[in-house]
Automatic annotation (TrEMBL):
Pfam families associated with the record: GCM
Domain of life of the native organism: Eukaryota
GCM domain sequence ranges: 19-174
Transcription in keyword set: yes
InterPro entries: GCM, GCM_dom_sf, GCM_large, GCM_small, Tscrpt_reg_GCM
SUPFAM superfamilies reported for this sequence: GCM domain
Biased composition range(s): Basic and acidic residues: 156-172, 191-203
Protein name: GCM domain-containing protein
PROSITE patterns reported for this sequence: GCM
Amino acid sequence: MPAAEAQLADCAWSYGMKLSWDINDPQMPQKPAHFDRFCEWPDGHVRFIYSSDEKKAQRHLSGWAMRNTNNHNGHILKKSCLGVVVCAQDCALPDGSRLQLRPAICDKARLKQQKKPCPNCHSALELIPCRGHSGYPVTNFWRLDGNAIFFQAKGVHDHPRPESKSETEARRSAVKRQMASFYQPQKKRIREPEAGESQDHSRHFNSIPSLENPEDLDVIPDAGFPVPGQPCLSFPNSDAYKATCDLTTFQGDIVPPFQKYSNPRIYLPRPACSYELADPGDANLSPYPTFYKDAGSIPKDADWVHLNTLQYNVNTYSSFERSFDFTSKQHGWKAVLGKAGPGERLDQAQLPPEAAHSQYTPQPPCRYLTTAPPAAPALQTVITTTTKVSYQAYQPPALKYCDNVREVKSLSSCDYASENTQMSVYAEALDLPAPVVTATSPTASLPLKIPRDCWTVRQHALPPRTDGVETWDVCPSGLGSTVGYADRISPFFSCDNEDF
DNA sequence: CGCTGCGGGCAAT
DNA sequence: ATTGCCCGCAGCG
């Protein structure tokens, strides 16, 4: 897996953020010196510059479920996030994680999808809309200019990651094959793994955190979770990564897949830029042979059929969430939003974004990287205040400058990282309320372990924009990272942005 | 059948 | 004017 790791490491570095540009600029940077590796899970206010030869950029792919949004600008493709489909009852999958399906992009298909029952507990499915951009869905912008594809994201996803597109597709194709083989009379039930699907799954199994009592575990997060500041991290520890790869634990849905590790430290090695399927050579690692609990009642729904795989594929960071009381936050969020079924979106849309943000925020590791020590009461205060600030900041683009570096430093009880793993972040992006919650979450009681316990945020003397926007460098210690850290630090900066 | 991009149209700000 | 979003259409796999 060295190649994949290298890829991730590359992906973690954003050239696009080093340059000063906005997707709406009349002139894009001409002839970029080099291009960014494609990042499948961009989060936060990030910008990438891809080569126009980059296939995935050409197709405007994203791990997030992004749908086309008409912005009446033929030159800039805008997409907005659909969120994630979860079980309305928040039921636990066999491994303890939560269902997180990829919302169908097509409206009709999505409605249909939401009418289906939870493949795990048969209760309703529920679409968690994305409100990561000041109450609106996170938006991604694509613009082709010359030999470069410019990508800009606005907002921080305030929901878990859905399945990636490749995972969904793999699952669908797997279902087809599954059904095809099942309906062949006397066909053996223990199906042989098929390269096309197993390659994907094997990769994801490799990334499965092993756990029994997630709440008791130390977690070293990486990009397996929506990470505004580090959407594409490399594995912090490849040994640990391998340590979670005992595939024999996935050979049945009765045996808890993680029981072997009663008290492990969890590494969440899910590749953030996992758009490539793994080596088909791992075909024998497919979970399918032991898939069905009851071969006599094979569901026809793709989500059903592939559930066992899905739970590993899509929830590699669910254990992380649980480690941070994710579910309770989710419930709190639901409480605010009211009960919802399909079509809830409209109801939720009526809510002030502050409510959603302050109640429901799956907390990316990087947010915890700011090991802010405040206790819960302080958290509440900050949430209220900063969300307001953030929201206000979003309207009139009156710039206040982010000049308090010390506050940033105080966010992380850490040393300072090496210079060559830095990324730049524009202070202009500091506008989102969502990270406020997380940035101030007390981590002292949380079982989180941060890689090298350190992030660096410092003012950056990079190409000053004429509009007075300043640039910041943010870097996780010892790790290449990307962007969006601004979102985490925004509340403390009380920065307004220029509202891209 | 679903994904994707396009573009008309509407409503709110 | 901008932004968000709904809708339908067409091309594609």
